[in-house]
Amino acid sequence: MGRISDPCMPPSSDPYMGRSGDPCMGSSAPSSGGQSTHRHTPLLRSAFALLGFFILLSLGGCSLRQYQTEDDQLYIGIRKIEVVDRPKGSYADRVIATAEERLGYAPNGSLFGSSSLRFPFPLLGPSIHMHFAEDSTFVGNLIRRLTPRPVWMREVSPSLRAKVAQQTLRAFGYLSAEVRSEIIPEKADSLQARVDYKLDLGPLYLLDSVRYFPRVYIRPGRYFYHHRLSALQRGRPFSLEALEDDRTIARAFLREHGYYYLKPEHITYEADTLISPRKVWLRTVLSPSTPPEALRQWKLGRVMLRQLPEDAESPTTLATDSVALSDSVMLYYSGRPIVRPGVLKTRIRMKQGQVYRSTDEERTLSALTGLSAFSSVEMYFSPREDLSKKAEADTLSSAEATDSVATKRPTFSAQPDSIGTLDLMILLRKDKPWSSYLGAAFMRKSTNYIGPGLSASLERNNVFGGGEKLSATLSGSYEWQTGRNPIDGYSVAINSYQLGADVALTFPSILFPRLMDAYYKYPTSTSFKVALQGINHARYYTLRSLSFTMDYSFQPSSQWSHRITPLSLNYTQLLRTTSRFDELIKANPALGLSLRDQFIPKFGYSVTYTRRADDSPHYLQVSAEVSEAGNLSNAVMKLSGASYNETKTMFGVPFAQFAKAALDLRYSYRISRKSTLATHFATGAIYPYGNATTAPYIEQFYVGGANSIRAFTVRSIGPGRYRASEESAYSFMDRVGEFKLEANVEYRSRLFGNCYGALFVDAGNVWLLRPDSARPGASLREAGSVGGLLDAIAVGTGAGLRYDLSFLVVRFDVGVGLHLPYETTRKGWYNIPRFRDALGFHLAIGYPF
């Protein structure tokens, strides 16, 4: 009977022992040990792999046993949350979701903050942490910082969380709600346990009768009627949230009309649930501790501004100089004023003798802090001495009265007894004149470009004593674009670097005659900027641009914002080209014209309207932009005798002439607490004429990428039905147009923890406004009909994940192409030749729209 050799112990006479043919060296080549070696090697490898898997799987739990006491249990998440006889309706869904948030607690290895889903080997990190718990060395401290502590059941305290959730349900009107918790040990390991929660909401209590404040005096002929603003109405759910909102609204209205000392805690409520079953009788009253000054209106007296030293720890120096900004406003300072008195005067929005208004206080504070001259602005109101003494005397006299008077509740007076006077002191501390910033990041852009970037800036605050800011910035980045065309499958590898520098001067006002020191309720600015930028595309071209821009930005209300660019002058110069680029220009002359050396003298205007109420599920934002270039220059040259068809130049360089308009509309609807439907529509057109037949390349439109049609990379489709005869890594240069149409729909829903999912559909394309023989099918005229236009729209769908940290949203989307705007080898509307090449992967920051 023959001897079977061990595949991991070859005979010493084997000349190939330890070489690449040895099965124990990881090679698939047959060894000289016979068939049994070839047959047993895969089995042993599988056995070792399986054994290693089980060792890792049990390592965390087993290694934590030695740190557990008999009463300790390791918390490994929530098994289920059961709602008994779940009520229907959006209100109940919101209440239940709020209660579930109180119950949530992430175990070790939580998947995006989930209370139930975990990554593989969730206890490996805690076991390592506990192993080094007593290690005081540098390595031990470092490992403890990098690994999480185990989450014990005693820390989670399910019974306490159940009580908190129960109080939450009762606060929303489910006054008989009960929440119970149960710890469920794991079958295989009693030292690990999950938690079950059971929610029994019971009936919802509704408001049956509400007694409001009596009317409160505002001014002659006008009163505050509580019931007109209150959301506490008969038939609505009784909740602490509604009570809090009600007194916040009432206090804000009264404080806006002079009741400066009124606080939310002065407004209280008395509720009775015994009169009617499942009904609440409610009465609004003032707290017995409400001071007399809170029931009186106040007007503004003197306003004093005091300039403090820069060092917060240094003692306050006495002011040696003063200047009157108006009859009732004084500025006290030492040395010289931080800001010109004329600028300060326009930013004091409170006038002597006027009834105090909280919005005037907010506007004054916002105006002063927006000057970029003060590190802090503090406002202190103090009542005049005569009235404060009178109020104190009234309080003492009422305290010495009979017991019945002492227990009488305070009330607002139906008519004004007297209006108090508040003097205002504003303390101004000078900000440091210079500030600098240095930033570095590894960027991933929507254009598929990735790479490191570095920027440094230096700022000089309050340059001319009027809150102006002068800044200088240097920036640079190196990028490379990687990936594949989603349709044709060619590889893309384009390297580039970018260097830039700019100097900007920003004034916190509108620089215009008679508006130099004017102030508006919302931020207003005038900015001048000079920028120099150089872009180098390896194996392609080098482009340099120099620009000067002047902008007016103002916001007349919280919903409307405007930007006027009376002058924008941009000079672009193509410094270097390669033979590859020259060949592309020969095939497409229009592309060469759009990238030629040229001036772009432009005037522009943009407006944005945003509407979003705090309690509304609707959000709407509409942005519109119009601009024109070259018309003024062309008119001046025509007056000097230049022919219309002649190519006119500025300093020997042709200038662009075009008209451009763009519209961007975003609307979202919050379906429920966990889901939202977001939509986006964008269109635009640019029409070159006169001195140029092609718009500048940087002004034209394109689609595709992480914030557009996500099934396709940037500039991989369009214009129109055009398709290059030979695709290459550089054919994306042709994919720009003069008319754009794009629409997006996205459904967003919370999955678990901070992780959200999305399903989306994107559609759009770009077109030329004039036919181009080098790009057949690229113009709108060649679409032929509405059906032809729709057939030339690229369509894609897909899904994505969002990790929302409130201050940062990391997004990963996978797009799937459905329809290409040109003919392919596949017939029909779904004309993607190969599915694997129709996938687009995008990692980005922030939501796409």
CATH class (first level) name of the largest domain: Mainly Beta
Helix/strand structural class: alpha+beta
What integer is the average pLDDT? 81
Let me know the largest β-sheet: 16 strands, antiparallel
The amount of beta strand, in percent, is 35-45%
What order do the strands of the largest sheet run in, or round the barrel if closed? Answer: 14-15-16-17-18-19-20-21-22-25-26-27-28-29-30-31
**Which superfamily, in CATH terms, is the homologous superfamily of the largest domain?**
membrane protein fhac: a member of the omp85/tpsb transporter family
Are there runs of 5+ residues with pLDDT below 50, and where? 1-40, 53-61, 395-407, 442-450, 481-493
Radius of gyration: 36 Å
Helix content: 10-25%
Task: Estimate nothing, just give the exact number of structural domains.
Answer: 4
Helix count, per DSSP? 16
Q: What is the distance, rounded to the nearest whole angstrom, between the alpha carbons of the first and last residues?
A: 77 Å
Could you please say which CATH topology of the largest domain applies here?
Porin
How many beta strands in the DSSP annotation?
31
Shape: globular
